[in-house]
Amino acid sequence: MELVYPIVMIIGLPIILVLLFINFKKPVLYSDGKKIANTKYAQEIPYYKEIMKKYKFFSFLIKLLIIIAIFMALLLFARPSKVDYESSAKYNRDIFLCMDISTSVNELNEKLVEELKETVKKLKGERFGILIFNTSPVLLVPLTDDYEYIIDTLDNLKRGLEIDNGETSIVDLDDDDYYIRHYIYEGTLVDNETRGGSLIGDGLASCVFKFPNLEEERSRIIIFSTDNDVQGEEIVSLKEAAEFAKENNITVFGIGPDIITDDNREEFEEVAEYTGGSYFTNDSKTTVSEIINNIEKKEKSLLKGKKEIRKVDKPQIPFIILTISICGLFVLNKKVKL
Predict the structure, then answer these.
(1) Which of 168, 162, 160, 104 lies closest to 130 in space, CA to CA?
(2) How much is the pTM?
(3) Is residue 288's pLDDT more than 80?
């Protein structure tokens, strides 16, 4: 504990000592008032002695509380503070949600975003990002540790998927819901008339290169949801995108819907395992939570950051003592008036 303005105490303490000397020195006899003869007999009365004893005791306590209150006030003016050392260390794990938002994957995606919200709440220093795609990829959230913003985006995605899944009638949509319904489609269908949709390889490749500073050694993970049912002309195939991921040490955890075909599932599973990840099907035996458990087992290391030194005010104890002293003065003041 140290003081920001110690000069306040240097000046204030002598003042307190002077007050102590003035208030506790032996009083001069008969310095004021009228002299009364034969008070000796009155002073010998037990009731008088009891009253004077209480008076002197409570008077002493009042003076003591005043001194304490003045001292605490000076201490608050001097600003007691404590030096805190904060480390900027963070876990070096980056997680991207790469989501195919074609309608055939809507039910799976709705479940996925809901469970991911709970995972994001448990993150401590890791960065998380969200990319959605159909014909074209759209980066909704770049890698960030602003978990509140991530959860808000997941809420918007979930609401949009609920509406698109028919859980809310189109005629019942208000302006906000109308906006949310288009939230998951604007930008993802660019050139779909000529290129088609569900360009799976393009979506994964785009997500790979949304990781910044790929030359840095970090743990990188993609949660990739799709039915792997390509309905157009890809620039990059799924296997080529997986090679990009492996070259950059990015692990892909894949999850497909119940309706995925055997051929698409086999290719998807092969790609995920090629990058060091795993493939899961959204059925009764395998849930999204298992994917999260596998991701949490993925090794993460702590990056040691610089220690930041900052002073934090600590007025709590002096303020509490000052408050108690003032309250005590109000109580004792009534006691002295006997």
Answers:
(1) 160
(2) 0.61
(3) no
